[in-house]
Write a structure and sequence with these properties.
alpha+beta; 4-stranded mixed beta sheet; two-stranded antiparallel ribbon; 33% helix; globular
Length: 90
């Protein structure tokens, strides 16, 4: 199954390591440093030119992590994965 991140970008759900809210997670200096390092290493894909609301960490073929920055909220992305529905059915 795939997750649409906006524009023409889709990722495999099984490659997702985490979905993070941009506003709350970037309060931490560790997170800001991680995102800055990923940017320097060209591992950041900005899906939209609009104000970012969340970022998604995905593992690649070489186990390299790619950061997708999107204007879609983390709660909407989480709903799109169906993860919460899966938990509710347990």
């Amino acid at each position: 199954m795939y997750l649409h991140l906006g524009q023409d970008t889709v990722i495999k759900i099984e490659d997702i390591l985490g979905i993070f809210d941009m506003e709350t997670s970037t309060i931490s200096k560790v997170t800001r440093d991680y995102l800055a390092r990923a940017q320097k290493e060209n591992r950041v894909v900005n899906v939209s030119m609009e104000m970012p609301k969340s970022f998604v960490l995905c593992s690649g073929k070489n186990q390299e992590v790619t950061v997708y920055i999107t204007q879609i909220s983390s709660s909407t992305l989480l709903k799109r994965t169906g993860f919460i529905e899966g938990i509710a059915n347990v």
